[in-house]
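Dear colleagues,

As part of the handover before I leave the project, I'm documenting each prediction I ran so the next person doesn't have to rerun anything. This entry is a single chain, and its sequence is reproduced below.
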Amino acid sequence: MNSQSKVSGKDFWEQRYISLCMPWDIGQAAPPFVKYLTKCFSQKTTATLNVAVLGSGRGHDAFYFAKYKECNFNVYGFDFSDSAIKYCNELKEKDNIQNVVFHKEDFFKLTQDKRWESFFDLVIEHTSLAAIDPKRREEYANLISYLLKPGGNLVGLFFVRPKELGGPPFGITPDEVRLLFQKDFIEIEELHSEECLHGEKLKGKEYFGVFEKKQNFHKSEPIP
């Protein structure tokens, strides 16, 4: 079994959590998400927004959104690693955080559950696109489209690196990211390079951007 097919199984990732081999985990919320919240939600609002964090891992980004005081976020983290979900639930209980829920779920299967269709205002992408089998990238884009309300935003921090380095993380270019989402989305904050805290551990760069699901989006059949 090659590395591309292995990443579709939870055992591949579970072993990394068990062995603490997690070079993608920077131990904190990604700074570009902190900047995004400060810029876009700088004043107290009474709005309640549903947020999905795909491949939530140890929950750094999910917890940061849940704890952000200027907006009422209901945060849903999805990951199929037992160890990652256990860690997050223990931290949630320890800190008594009520507005975040973690689901042990292969996020590709979310399209099989009607309750998630057009449910989310924001979808947070951080390293998941680089972690999945590259053959499933279009499926991943369709998944995000399925989850978001029309007008909802994909807030993405995309890991970019040369394809010849193999993976995971698997290489992609900013132009390929744009092409992937152009069917259902409008790029409302242009992809741009941000400081990458992964450094030499993973040998790549991070690009931040925001994509809005088109308001005139016509619902298609769920991914089989």
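Confidence is low (pLDDT under 50) at residues 220-224. The domain at 3-213 is CATH 3.40.50.150 (Rossmann fold).

All the best with the project,
I.
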